[in-house]
Design brief:
The complex is a heterodimer of chains A (about 325) and B (about 575). Chain A is mainly alpha-helical. Chain A has helices spanning about 1-30, 45-55, 60-70, 85-120, 125-140, 140-155, 175-185, 185-210, 215-220, 225-265, 270-280, 285-310, 315-320. In chain A, α4 packs antiparallel against α5 and α5 (about 125-140) crosses α8 (about 185-210). The relative contact order of chain A is 0.16. Helix content of chain B is about 30%, strand content about 20%. In chain B, β8 (about 145) and β9 form a beta hairpin. The longest helix of chain B is centred in the N-terminal third of the chain and has 24 residues, at about 1-25. Chain B is globular, with a radius of gyration of 27 Å. Classes of the chains: A mainly alpha (about 325), B alpha+beta (about 575).
Chain lengths: ~325, ~575
């Protein structure tokens, strides 16, 4: 197990270095730079000052070298947009995204898995409806879902139409603040969870449909095991392997989906920060957000492996051997 | 009897309701621009901003949010009223100018204090000017406060008097000081002495460290989420009835980066106002919300800025491209102007909310607009005739005109991707110019890439909105002067010691250079206007950039907001936040 975790840690570090360096190079090579934010006709001396501050007057390799050396000391440079160190911004935004991601992943799991079990193990109208709903959720881009939900929230007033806390939170105590966050959570969480729930449903359904025709399931049925016990106790557990594998990818998808959802719903998370940074060519903020994205992906992958480890005895046996 | 009683009760209720409704919807009476009723004191206004502030120090940052916060938290010596464009006394209550226009003696308003109670004195003004012109400060307003290449000098005979000496006569005179937010010496002199003024009051500074003479104080800033401002209890300004301003207790500015989400939240009542005008596409939805009593939509008039279409007129950038032979001719551009139906342009591009224009100064800039410039009525035949006159004809009957050497009038026009009216504008242009045989291929690109290509003269034609930073032409010398960094149709090369000084590319640009220099140093307003009319006339004759339509500006705010004095400039409402009030809960 220790060797497994060590391998995972090395993989995570490599992933973070590659992703953040790649992001830095791509941002540097893309046409235009951060000085475009000063406007088309900013005074040349101001443009030169900003270019020097963000090392844009050096070669891409020299810039990367300087940034990497500083990053080893956990100094990820300054953000142009926020005019403050990237580290603190990412820390705060990652926390907010983690809250949203956990809520969305929980919602996607609670919706997708049971619906997938039903649609994969039954025939009739209900599975058809579930399949149809999943296809709709998969087809609608998160941008549209977010806008529709913001529209619905603004029309009905049932939920806050955006943000993470309400405007009166400035005077609120800690417990009121938590309640306020919980009230703001459903809208972005639903927008983010729907396509993932649909993915879970489709995969679970397919996996269940395949497992249910396996000889061991047929044998159990012949032994007189009830249908419900057969589905939950035997077929579902056996079908979990592919679901566990998809969990790591789902966490990655949560992050990429959150770009748009956080932007539209004004959730101050990592996705929105990265989106703003990309639009503004805020080079060190892009690199920092990408590094944190790498952390999320590595964690997702680790969670998926651990789940697989717990769910599949063959994996456990393989590890111990 | 019962029925009559019921009728009376219903009538009374309707009347009472009517009175309550009338009281809650009647705007406060404005006396000299200041809302008066004390009944509207208190309350919280929720606005939106699209981007976070880079700094709270207006001397070192120019972004829209920093500018907005400087309106809310800081004071200026004099202020340009964004609604009337008049110069108003602010922290300086009066002034005298010397006959030669070089010296201004300003008398500071007595009894003004900073929000922490420290007295506001002429020392603060001297300190601010010192900070502006200190090279280590990295000031972004130094250029605006420089006259004939030299800084304005200041002395303080006493605590309440400032004497400003201009190095040369300046057309805008004291209007230049509108750019100068006065900073507190007692808080920032240490930073200036240590050479760290550029970093002082950055966005990480605790709100309690910052003080101001504006109507509000920074209470809280959560990056990416919101800025909270509380009323400054020591604010100096009072309404004419003696009510202490500002009316509001608090302003909350929520960060809402997406404009669609911003509009939805405005319609739902989640936001009271925004910092930008309505897009043409949003007008109908806002009007519908107004009909339902949720929003109030204001027509602010014609905007001072308009989209332009221009060809790169930098000869060396075309290298040996034979098309420059006709692109460089004013007749070619005049033909294009004739080819465009401006009424249809307003209808198709701005959905009817626009007025035809023939130059960069729109009717929205009431002081400087000249209606007497050359106009080019829509006339396709005339356009074709002009093109023929410069040797451009469709010789091979493929629908595109070419010169005698067979070089077609075919161009790629770049524009900013994702902006609805840019995309509609280029499509309209392509269709209209096709009728006279000029082919345009549209290439929408990212704003950063567009700016890079513009600055490196790596384009053939552009459709974009080059914003004029100031309504006064003397504030836009960088655009008008051929040596200016904003002379967008023919950007000058790098300047510096050892580098050759570029001459104006054309005779008419040399003439504009001369007129603009004269205009900027002329004190007589009538004479300035006459000179600038001449500049607009030359521009319209030579058309280095073509302007077709100026948008009408509409602004929407929640119906509970009172006392807004709207401006066609940004921020449309909060430039005068101290007189804004709200009625009822959000």
């Amino acid at each position: 197990m220790a060797r497994f975790l060590l391998r995972r840690l090395i993989f995570a570090i490599l992933l973070i270095v590659i992703v953040s360096s790649g992001a830095l190079f791509l941002t540097r090579l893309a046409p235009g730079d951060v000085t475009a934010n000063l406007g088309a006709f900013a005074p040349p001396e101001e443009v030169a000052r900003i270019r020097a501050r963000f090392d844009l007057d050096r070669s891409a390799a020299a810039q990367w070298g300087g940034w990497a050396l500083r990053a080893i000391r956990f100094d990820f440079g300054d953000s142009f947009l926020y005019n403050r160190p990237v580290g603190g911004l990412i820390q705060r935004a990652a926390g907010n995204t983690a809250v949203l991601a956990v809520a969305a992943l929980s919602l996607a799991t609670l919706l997708g898995i049971p619906l997938g079990i039903i649609s994969g193990s039954r025939r009739g109208v209900a599975p058809m409806l579930i399949r149809g709903a999943s296809l709709v959720c998969l087809s609608i881009p998160p941008l549209l879902t977010s806008l529709l939900l913001v529209f619905a929230a603004s029309r009905t007033g049932w939920l806050p139409a955006g943000g993470m806390t309400s405007v009166n939170a400035v005077d609120a105590g800690w417990s009121s603040w938590v309640l306020d966050v919980v009230r703001h959570l459903p809208l972005p969480a639903i927008a983010l969870a729907l396509p993932i729930a649909a993915t879970f449903e489709r995969l679970q359904s397919q996996s269940m449909a395949e497992t249910i025709h396996q000889p061991f399931v047929v044998a159990a049925l012949a032994r007189g095991v009830t249908w419900r016990r057969l589905v939950i106790g035997h077929a579902w557990r056996a079908s979990l392997r592919s679901m566990c594998a998809i969990y790591g990818l789902a966490i990655g998808a949560l992050l990429s989906g959150s770009f748009v959802v956080e932007y539209i719903t004004a959730w101050p998370g990592l996705g929105r920060l990265m989106y703003e940074a990309l639009r503004a060519r805020d080079i060190y903020l892009v690199a920092g957000c990408s590094a944190m994205g790498g952390v999320f992906l590595a964690l997702g992958s680790l969670v998926a492996d651990l789940l697989l480890f717990a769910a599949d005895p063959r994996v456990r046996e393989g590890q111990s051997a | 009897m019962k029925r009559r009683l019921l009728g009376s009760v219903v009538t009374a209720a309707i009347l009472l309701g009517g009175v309550v409704f009338w009281r809650s919807t009647t705007a406060p009476e404005l006396v000299n621009g200041v809302a008066t009723p004390a009944a509207t004191r208190g309350g919280q206004l929720v606005g939106s901003i699209r981007a976070v502030p880079r700094s709270f120090n207006r001397i070192v940052a120019r972004e829209q949010t920093t500018e907005l916060l400087s309106f809310l938290t800081q004071g200026r010596l004099v202020r340009i009223n964004r609604s009337t464009f008049d110069l108003e006394p602010w922290l300086a209550e009066s002034w005298e100018a010397s006959p030669d226009g070089l010296t201004f003696t300003l008398h500071l308003r007595p009894g003004v204090t900073w929000s922490d109670g420290a007295p506001f004195t002429s020392g603060d003004v001297l300190f601010t000017l010192q900070a502006v012109f200190d090279p280590k400060s990295e000031s972004v307003v130094a250029n605006q406060l420089t006259v004939a290449g030299k800084p304005i000098a200041a002395t303080a005979p006493d605590d309440h008097t400032i004497v400003l000496t201009y190095p040369a006569p300046s057309g805008p005179g004291l209007r230049l000081l509108d750019a100068l937010a006065i900073m507190p010496k007692h808080k920032l002199e240490g930073a200036l002495a240590a050479g760290t003024f550029a970093k002082s009051w950055d966005s990480a500074t605790p709100p309690s460290d910052m003080v101001g003479t504006g109507p509000f104080l920074l209470r809280e800033y959560i990056p990416g989420q919101r800025i909270v401002l509380d009323r400054n209890p020591r604010y100096w300004r009072k309404a004419t009835d003696g009510t202490q301003l500002p009316y509001l207790d608090r302003i909350v500015l929520q960060v809402v980066p997406d404009q669609d989400a911003e509009l939805l939240r405005l319609q739902s009542g989640d936001l009271d106002l925004t910092q930008s005008e309505l897009r043409p596409d949003d007008y109908v939805a806002a009007r519908r919300a107004e009909d339902q009593g949720r929003l109030k939509v204001l027509e602010l008039g014609v905007g001072p800025d308009a989209d332009a279409f221009w060809f790169r007129l930098k000869a060396e950038a075309w290298k040996n491209d034979p098309r420059f032979a006709f692109v460089s001719k004013p007749e070619f551009r005049r033909a294009i102007s004739h080819a465009v139906d401006r009424e249809a342009f307003a209808e198709n591009v701005f959905l009817g909310a626009g007025v035809p224009i023939w130059g960069p100064i729109t009717p929205g800039n009431r002081i400087w607009f000249s209606p007497n410039v050359l106009r080019y009525p829509h006339d396709v035949n005339k356009a074709k005739e002009i093109l023929k006159g410069i040797g451009l004809e469709d010789r091979n009957a493929n629908g595109i005109v070419e010169d005698a050497g067979g070089n077609e009038a075919r161009f790629t026009v770049i524009t900013q991707r994702g902006i609805g009216w840019y995309e509609r504008g280029t499509t309209e242009l392509r269709n209209r110019l096709a009728q006279v045989g000029i082919a345009l291929e549209i290439a929408p690109i990212d704003n950063g890439a567009l700016i890079k290509r513009l600055l490196s003269s790596d384009y053939e034609a552009i459709y974009y909105r080059p914003l004029l930073t100031d309504l006064d032409p003397a504030g836009n010398m960088d655009v008008w002067m051929s040596s200016g960094s904003g002379h967008f149709w023919n950007l000058p090369g790098p300047k510096g010691p050892g580098l050759p000084v570029e001459k104006p590319a054309t005779e008419w640009e040399a003439r504009i250079d001369m007129l603009m220099a004269e205009q900027a140093s002329t004190i007589d307003p009538e004479r300035r206007k006459a000179i600038f009319n001449d500049v607009q006339r030359i521009f319209a004759e030579n058309l280095p950039a073509l302007y077709f339509v100026a948008p009408r500006i509409y602004y929407a705010h929640n119906a509970r907001v009172r006392g807004v004095t709207p401006s066609v400039q940004r921020p449309p409402a909060l430039w005068s936040a101290d007189t804004i009030a709200v009625s009822g809960a959000p």
